[in-house]
Amino acid sequence: MSSGRTRGRFSLPGSYVRRIPDSSQIYPSFFRRRSLFGQVTSVGDGDNFRLYHTPGGRLLGWGWLPGRKVPTDRKELKERTVHIRIAGVDAPESAHFGLPAQPHSAESLEWLRKYLLGRRVRAHIYRRDQYDRVVCSVKVWHGLWRRDVGLEMLRAGVAGIYEAKFGAEFGKLENKYRIAEAIAKVERKGMWGLPGEYESPRSYKRAVKEDAAASARAGTVAAKPPGTVAAAGSRLQSTVSRTTTRSRGGGIVVVGNPKTTARTSATKDSPPKPPISRYNAPVPKPSTAKPSSPPPSPPKPPAGRRK
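RESULT FIELD:
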């Protein structure tokens, strides 16, 4: 028996009609060889979205056969969609992971939502990135034309070219991407019309992280007390907590060594003494005790008589 599914004269391998629920089911053998067809269920940022894989599309009953409908409830879609990162472009960063939003990020996000949300797209797989997203070039039908989403984003000025030392993916469209970005810059479309010098999302994230790290270091140095005072305070609190306890009536009862408690109280009230060195060592006082007298000599024996 054949492992594929036959529709008329066409035979499809089973792996091509199997639904892929998430990016963990996309293997390296898919890279640059396979594509995913499905419906966009959500757009979370200006350059990525969630795709519900519908292999075969309407030809295999998606959208009209029982059990072949795309869920609309967020709970039903949880862990059942593929996270797609649009290849070759980089949109302004939205506010997430503790970072503030970059200028024009809301406009880029709204543009992509209007352009993709609820539509059926085809995503050509390149690779998986460090965030477990699948980097793809994305095609969508608008009117009578099938358009490249990344190229349309560059033309509209809602994203720039993804610049990195390695990992940038363009397929065969890098020249078209760069020409579209250059034209958008000249015509000051979208984010290129903002005042000031443009800062790429990559540079923006790096600058924000460096500023946060510098602020944290400065705050730590300013707020840190002298080490000796901090250590003495912690030792004093530890000693008091060990030598006291609360009774049933609410009073404080000493349960430790009273001498230790008294010494701790005296140390707490009196100022700290400077360390002893050879310059401030105490001078020994002269002794006032009288020297002891020598022991008495034994008595002489009586003299004998002469003969």
